[in-house]
Amino acid sequence: MFRKFRAKPKGPESSVHQSLGSRARGLLPESIHVEEELIPDFVRPALMVVTATVILFIIWAAVTNLKEVARAPGEIIPSGDIKVVQHLDGGVISEILTAEGQLVEKGQVLLRVSGSKATAELGQMMARLDGLRLREERLLAVTEGKLKPDFDALEIGKPGMVTTQRDIYLAQLAARASTLDILDKQIEQRRQRIEQQRTALAVAKEHQMLTNELSDMREDLASRRLVNRSVLLETRRAKVTAIGEVDRLREEIGISQQELAESISRRTDAQNQLRQEALVELGAIRAEIAELEGAISRLQGQVNRLDVRAPNRGFVHDFKIYNVDQVVEPGAMLMQIVSEKPVLEAEVRIATRDIGFVKVGQHVNLRATSFDYARFGVAKGILKKIGPSSLLGDDKLPYYRGVVELDNPYVGDAADHYTLQPGMSVEADILTGEKTLLTYLTKPVIDVISLSFSER
């Protein structure tokens, strides 16, 4: 059936066919005859074009380089002027005055912590301190001999306490004045008695002098037997009595002088006793005041920290407080205050399978999930830092933390639009190198060949 479509050979081929006998032609393979009869004339040029195209594609694939990337998910984080807001003492949140993303001013109250107990303790300590200062002023007036304490200089707005200390001061002065008055009277009595004794002594001495003179005269008369013996003895007795009276008065004057000195000493002691007691009490009170002021300072700081204030102007970030009455642990982070114009970076999670190809300084293209990168473009940056060891993510898979420094805080070319914000999710393409297209195409085949014929 094929032969009826076959053209008759002409020229040399016809002569060859004619020269072959019918038996020789029958020996030719049937496939050759079919090939010659079925292949149209345009097939051979088409095959040559396809072959040339394949060869050119292989050459193009061998010289065309494609970028090799390691993809890492992450998010935009602020960098630079970031203040962590913590609470030193902890407690129960009583009022929330801010929210995530809010712009706050420096010193603005962000939270309030319940502190009724601390406030009450501070009030008690302050009242106690006021009382001690009033006592200190009263004792200073005693030790310095002031007419009255200067309570007004303390500026303590508690008239009852001031009146009490003033009354105590007046009572102390009255008691001391009474004691000194008694001692002054005793001293005066001693002095009067001494004066009387001295007067009596002068009289006794005069009497003694006269008695001695009389005795001498009668002794002279008695020697000439002009006076009887009884008169002489009486004169001698009077002389001895006069001498004894003088000695007695002198002894009494000495005793009275000792008593006067003791009275003066007692008066001095009484006058100094109140001052000495005031000095001792003043020292104890000042020590107590110093201790109390330290406790008040610590408690005042605790009360001041009940109002959690913004350390600087910026945006609230990573807000950890969710509701009133939430318990805050001492030293716990409450939030972060990010500067109004922070330097943005991207924190990415690099898979462990890619860490061997990722290096600091490599270029990174960031695709923000909030913006369609096909329309708005990508943000560019440089890989700034890689963590020294792997971490475990929420999915319990290990990863390495990387930080990408952004060239610009926006995607595409519009600086005023499509601005990146802290917390945005991104997909990072870390440019780790280049491969030819031929390498990409032959890699599956090479992998299959390299893994084949190696099983047990």
Describe the structure.
With 456 residues, the protein is an alpha+beta fold. It folds into four domains: 2-66, no CATH class; 67-80 and 342-451, Elongation Factor Tu (Ef-tu), domain 3; 81-113 and 306-340, RNA polymerase II/Efflux pump adaptor protein, barrel-sandwich hybrid domain (OB fold (Dihydrolipoamide Acetyltransferase, E2P), Beta Barrel); 118-304, Helix Hairpins (Orthogonal Bundle). 51% of the residues lie in helices and 21% in strands. The protein is built from nine helices and 15 strands. It has a six-stranded antiparallel beta barrel. Strands 2-9-7-4 form a four-stranded antiparallel beta sheet, with no helix packed on it. A hairpin with a 5-residue loop joins β13 and β14 (398-406). α5 runs parallel beside α6 and α6 (159-223) runs antiparallel to α7. 16% of the residues are buried.
Précis, in short:
This protein has 456 residues and is α+β, with helices and mostly antiparallel strands.
Compile the SSE list and pairings.
Blueprint: H1 11-19, H2 22-27, H3 30-38, H4 43-63, E1 65-79, E2 82-86, E3 91-96, E4 103-104, E5 109-113, H5 116-144, H6 159-223, H7 229-304, E6 307-309, E7 314-317, E8 327-328, E9 333-339, E10 343-351, E11 363-368, H8 373-376, E12 379-386, E13 391-392, E14 398-406, E15 425-436, H9 437-451
Antiparallel strand pairs: 1-10, 1-15, 2-9, 3-5, 3-8, 4-7, 5-6, 7-9, 10-14, 11-12, 11-15, 12-14, 13-14
Helix pairs in contact: 5-6, 5-7, 6-7
